[in-house]
Amino acid sequence: MKHSFIALIEDKCTSCMLCVRECPAWCISLDSHTIDVTEEGARRPRKVNVLDSFEIDYSLCMYCGVCIDVCPFDALAWDEHRALVTTNREDMLLGIVELGPSGSS
Ligand code: SF4
Ligand code: SF4
């Protein structure tokens, strides 16, 4: 497995913040909000986190894989078919769209 790119599977992410806290380089950031989801037969609404933003700053990332290992929901995974190639530091900050399976990096 080539460790060249970390992909985010957005619909698996619960915004639990584990990857953000465990990343030794502090290069992951995310924002989320909470909504109430009412399910049929439930006595009260369930609180669900909705991801607003998720970013990895690849100018700081060490490709250690800690974020992938700690994610309890398999929302992060190595993508050996992609690699970030740029000479511009600003282009190394990737968000939900770029990190997603259909990202263009
Ligand atoms: S691979 Fe390591 S340094 Fe890079 S985002 Fe994940 S935990 Fe952070
Ligand atoms: S550890 Fe996984 S589920 Fe939790 S915020 Fe990070 S990517 Fe999302």
Whole-number count of domains: 1
Q: For this structure, what is the CATH class?
A: Alpha Beta
Query: What is the share of helical residues?
Result: 10-25%
- Could you give the order of the helices and strands? EHEEHEEH
How would you state the average pLDDT, rounded?
92
Beta strands, count? 5
Number of helices: 3
- Whole-Å distance between the termini? 18 Å
Question: What is the CATH T-level topology?
Answer: Alpha-Beta Plaits
State the secondary-structure class.
alpha+beta
Provide the descriptors you would attach to this structure in a database record.
105 residues, Alpha-Beta Plaits, alpha+beta, two-stranded antiparallel sheet
Quick take:
The protein has 105 residues and is α+β, with helices and mostly antiparallel strands. The chain has helices at residues 18-22, 66-70, 96-99, and strands at residues 6-8, 28-37, 46-57, 76-78, 93-94. The protein is 13% helix and 29% strand.
